[in-house]
Amino acid sequence: MSEDGYAVRLEGVTKRFGKHTAVSELDLEVPRGVIYGLLGPNGSGKTTSIRMIMGILHPDAGRVSLFGADADEARRKRVGYLPEERGVYRKMKCLDLVVFLAEIRGVPRAEGRRRALDWLERLGLPEWADKKVEDLSKGMQQKIQFIGTVIHEPDLLILDEPFSGLDPINQDVLEEIVLDFHSRGTTIVFSTHLMDQAERLCQRVCLISKGRKVLDADLRELKAAERKGLVAVEFEGPDRWLQGPEVESVEAVNGAVHLALREGADHQAILRRGVESGATIYRFDLVEPRLHEIFVRHVGAAASDEAGVPRSAPLGGGRR
Amino acid sequence: MSNVWAVIRREYLQRVRSKWFIFSTVGGPLFMIGLMVIPALTAGRAERAGRNIALVDRTEVLYERLIPRLEESGLTVTREAWSEDVVPSLTQKVTDEELGGFLLLDDETLSSGRATFYGSKTPSTLQRVTMRAAVSRTALEKILEDRGVDAESLMSGGELRVEMLSGEGAGFEDPQFLVAYLGSFFLYMMFLLYSVSVMRATLEEKTSRVVEVVISSMKPWHLMLGKILGVGAVGLTQMAVWFGSGAILAGAALPAMIAARPEVATLADMKELLPGAGLVGLFLIFFLFGYFIFAGLYAAVGAMCNTDEEAQQAQFPVMLLVIVPILLVMQTIQSPGTTLSVSLSLFPFFSPILMFARVSIGAAPAWQILLSFVLMGLTVVGVAWVAGRIYKVGILMAGKRPTLPELWRWVREA
Does the CB of A153 have a partner CB in chain B at under 8 Å? Predict the structure, then answer.
C-alpha cells in the first residue's frame, strides 16, 4: 500500500468496444500535485481513459493505479470526478444533493451540510439551497455539480471537459477554484480540447489521438523544445537570404515570414546572412509555439501516419 | 454499508416528501372513509323503505330459518308464496318503491347456495354480504341436516371448518372471499406500483447520468440494494398509515357509526368483514417477499434500458409474473385445495399473491405456508444474484438493449 509519487498511473491500458479500439496500450503517469491536461480531438479516447480511471469501464488489458496502488473503491472516494455528461438528481433540493454526494464519499452529514453551505455562498448560490435542482438554469446546475465534485475535499480532481457550457465569467470562477485547489496540493487532471485553457492552467500535458499517446511532456519543456524550430521575420529588401541549408520551409503569415528550421539548425547563421545581404530586418523572433499549433501538428501527424501519408504532408488538417 | 444507508435515506425522504405520496397516503383512507360514511349518513327514509324486502321461497323449506336471520341484520321480510305472476306483481311493487326488492330461492339454492335478489338499485356491499351469508348458511344447514349431520354443532365450530370439511373454497357469500380477493388485488397493486418505481428510478439515474458519479463512489450492488430498500420502506410506510387508520376506524369509528344507525349492520357482521391482525401480519410478509422478488427484476429491467419506451417493452415478461397470478386468484379462492391451486400457489413468483389468497380464506395448511416462505426466500436470493449482475453491467451501458444471449453473458461474466 505504499504511495508512490503518482496520483494516477495507467500501464498498458487497452479498451475495445466490439471491433473498435478506443484506447490502445496507454501509459500515463500523473505526478502528485500537478495540473495535468489530457488533450485530444473528439473521439480520441480521453473520456474512455477517464472512465477507466474511475472504474466505470474496465480495461480489457493493463493496470490502473491511484495513489500508488490498484484503484479500488476506497481510493476512488478520494477522487472528485466531474463526468463529461453532466447529471444530477433533478428533483432533489440543491443542498440535499450536495450533502448526499458528500455522504457517499464518507463525509458525515453535518459536516457535508456545513461545507455545502460554504460552497453555495462562495459560488453565489446561497438562496438556492432549498430550491430543486431542476428549477436552476443550466449554468447554475453545473455549479451545483461542481460543488458536488469537490465537497469531500478530494486529493485528486478529475474533470472531464469542465469548462464546456460555461460562460466566460463562470469559466474564470472555475479556473480560480481549480488553481486554489492546486495551491493546496490537490492533483488535477482535466480533459479538454480548448487549448487556450490548457495552456494557461496545465503544467503537464498528454496528447492522445485515436486512443494512442502522441505526446506526454512538461508544458514548459515542450514549448522550449518546439520553439527552436520556428522563426518569424519581418524585413524589407532582398529575400534570397531566407533560403539556406538550415531552412526547411518558408511561409508568409500575417505580413511576416515564418521560417521552419531543420533540426539542429543555427538561427544565428540565417540572421547573419540577412544582415550581410543588405535587408532591413525589423523583427527576427524565435516564436513560442502555441499549444494549439503543437496540438494540430502532432495530431495531424499522427493522423497522417495512420493513413500512410508521409509526415511532411500539409499540417493542420487534424483528422476527419 | 454507510453508502447503502445514504441511498436508502435519499430514496426514502425524496419520495415520502413528494406531493404524490402525501396525497395518496392521506387521501386513500379519507376516500375509503368517505365511501363508508357518506352513504350511511345520507341514507334517509328511502333507504329505510328499501330495507323492506319480500321473500319468495320455492323450496318451501328454507324460509323458516332464513327470515329471522335476515331480520337480525335489520331487514323487514314478508313472505310471498310462489305463483306464476308473483314476480311481475313484486316487480311492480319495487318500481312503486313499496319494496326495496325481493329475494327468490329455488332448487339451485338448495344445491349451490345461490339465490337471486331483484331490486331497483344495487344493494350495498354490506347488504349483499349479509344476505348471501344468511342464504348460504341456511341452505348449508338444510343440506347437512338432510344428510344426517348435526348442523348446529358443526356450525358452532365456525364457517371456516365447514368449508374445509366439504373441500370447497370460499364462495362469494363469505367475508373471507372479499378479504382474499381485495387483499390479493391490493398486493398486486403494491407490487406493480413500487417495483415500477424502482425501475423508473434506475432508468432516470441512468439516463440523467448521475449514476456515473454515484457508481464511482460505491458498488453498483450497494446502489441497487439501497434503492430497493428505500422504495420498499416507502411502501411499508404507506401501508402502515393505511392499516393504522383502518384499525382506528374499525376500533373507534365503526362501533360509533353502528350505534348511530343500528339498522345498517351489526357490529359482529362488520367485524367479520375485517381482516385480523394475524392476517395483516401475513399480508406484510407476503408483500415483502413479493416486493423483493419483483423489485429486483424491475431494477434489472431499468438498468438494461435507455429510454422509457424501451423499458415499457422490456418489462413485459416481468409484468406477466405479476399479472398471471392475479388472473388466477378467483379460481384459487374458489377451489383452493386442488393440486393445481396448491402447486401454483407454491410457485415462488406466484406465491406472494396466490398463497396469500389461500391463506386468507384459511385453506392453506401451515406446512405449505412455510414451504412457500422458504421457496420465496430462495427466489429472493436468486433474483438478487442475477439482477445484481445485470444491474452492474447494464447501469453503465449505453447503446442498444441487450439481447437474451447478451444478458446471459452479463450474468456469467459480471
Answer: no
